[in-house]
């Protein structure tokens, strides 16, 4: 999908550019933000990346020096939001984003609300990193090893290592070119998909112990509350990967994972094999994502959030019969 020339012009004309990824950033958001910052600096621009803190597994990514946490009252006139489906996903940085005279929104989520002045939402792309790869081509920016590492990381994160249905020929073609820059892609796959901290394994054990099945085992629900997180001695950033483990159980069509970030601040993730559209499920509670992977937040207790979700799924499943 071609970029609107207005987006290309905006990027070319602004010197200082703020790049923001979604809250609780994942591999695609981090990879896309850092790749874009590295590319813009090759055009002699001054990029700044706003990202919330993220897990140590991404320490190997180049471009960390562009990251700033403090964005308030930023005077930067051109803002680019990446991989963020709506204003809420941009998080607190939206205050400054919204004030800027030029706002660009680049994403691949179908549920994107087109909140930017210029919007480039390519739902056929596997990841925002794949879109940034295309953007670099349109901006005539030469790839290098550092950029390739960031983009490759984003693409494999969102495609689950080229196995999700979102993976297209374009993702493989981009990856083929990226690995020609000669980095250790096996290490990146390991870092993203297999390496686990001991705390993460303990969280996983707890989550598995907590699983409850509904609808003849088609729906698997699990959760970890704040007390359990504190007792196991870690924090919520080490909860990655639990949802896909639950989804992998034979016979499970829909997996639900809830954790309590703080009291009355519940984060929910959903995975589906397509039997129900979890993007719609998340949207019913103010969230978003994709048909097979999505998420949302609740400002309720864990059991209220759980009951609301289970009831919604019950209605969806009985509707289809
Ligand atoms: Mn993404």
Would you write up a description of this structure?
This protein is an alpha/beta fold and 321 residues long. The chain has two domains: 5-193, inorganic pyrophosphatase (n-terminal core) (Alpha-Beta Complex); 199-320, Diaminopimelate Epimerase, Chain A, domain 1 (Roll), CATH 3.10.310.30. The chain contains 13 helices and twelve strands. It has helices at residues 5-13, 27-42, 87-90, 94-99, 128-138, 145-159, 169-179, 185-194, 198-209, 226-231, 242-247, 278-283, 302-320, and strands at 16-21, 46-50, 67-68, 78-82, 102-107, 118-121, 212-214, 219-224, 254-262, 265-272, 288-289, 293-298. The strands form two sheets. A six-stranded parallel sheet has the order 3-2-1-4-5-6, covered by helices on one side. Strands 7-8-9-10-12-11 form a six-stranded mixed sheet, sandwiched between helices. Strand 11 and strand 12 form a beta hairpin. Helix 2 (27-42) runs antiparallel to helix 6, helix 6 (145-159) packs antiparallel against helix 7 and helix 6 (145-159) runs parallel beside helix 8. The protein is globular, with a radius of gyration of 19 Å. It starts with a helix and ends with a helix. The mean pLDDT is 94. The structure holds manganese (II) ion. The site of manganese (II) ion has 6 residues, from loops.
List keywords for this structure.
41% helix; 321 residues; globular; alpha/beta; six-stranded mixed beta sheet; 12 strands; inorganic pyrophosphatase (n-terminal core); single chain; binds manganese (II) ion; Diaminopimelate Epimerase, Chain A, domain 1
């Amino acid at each position: 999908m071609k970029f609107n020339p207005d987006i290309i012009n905006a990027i070319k004309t602004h010197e200082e550019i703020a790049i923001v990824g979604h809250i609780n950033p994942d591999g695609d958001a981090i990879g896309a933000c850092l790749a874009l910052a590295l590319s813009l600096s090759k055009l002699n621009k001054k990029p700044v990346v706003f990202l919330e803190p993220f897990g140590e597994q991404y320490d190997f990514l180049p471009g960390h020096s562009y990251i700033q946490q403090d964005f308030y009252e930023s005077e930067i006139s051109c803002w680019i939001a990446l991989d963020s489906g709506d204003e809420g996903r941009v998080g607190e940085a939206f205050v400054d984003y919204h004030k800027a005279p030029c706002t660009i929104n680049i994403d691949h989520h179908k549920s994107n609300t087109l909140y930017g002045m210029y919007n480039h939402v390519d739902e056929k792309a596997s990841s925002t990193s794949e879109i940034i790869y295309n953007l670099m081509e349109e901006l005539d920016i030469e790839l290098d090893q550092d950029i390739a590492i960031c983009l490759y990381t984003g693409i494999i994160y969102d495609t689950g290592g080229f196995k999700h249905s979102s993976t297209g020929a374009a993702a493989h073609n981009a990856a083929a070119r990226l690995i020609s820059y000669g980095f250790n892609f096996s290490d990146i796959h390991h870092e993203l998909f297999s390496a686990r901290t001991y705390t993460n394994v303990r969280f996983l054990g707890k989550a598995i112990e907590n699983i409850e099945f509904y609808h003849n085992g088609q729906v698997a629900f699990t959760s970890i509350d704040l007390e359990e997180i504190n007792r196991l001695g870690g924090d919520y950033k080490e909860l990655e990967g639990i949802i896909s483990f639950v989804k992998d159980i034979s016979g499970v069509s829909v997996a639900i994972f809830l954790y309590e970030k703080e009291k009355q601040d519940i984060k929910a993730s959903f995975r589906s094999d397509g039997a129900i559209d979890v993007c719609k499920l998340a949207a019913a509670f103010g969230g978003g994502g994709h048909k097979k992977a999505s998420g949302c937040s609740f400002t309720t207790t864990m059991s209220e959030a759980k009951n609301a979700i289970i009831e919604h799924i019950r209605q969806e499943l009985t509707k289809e019969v």
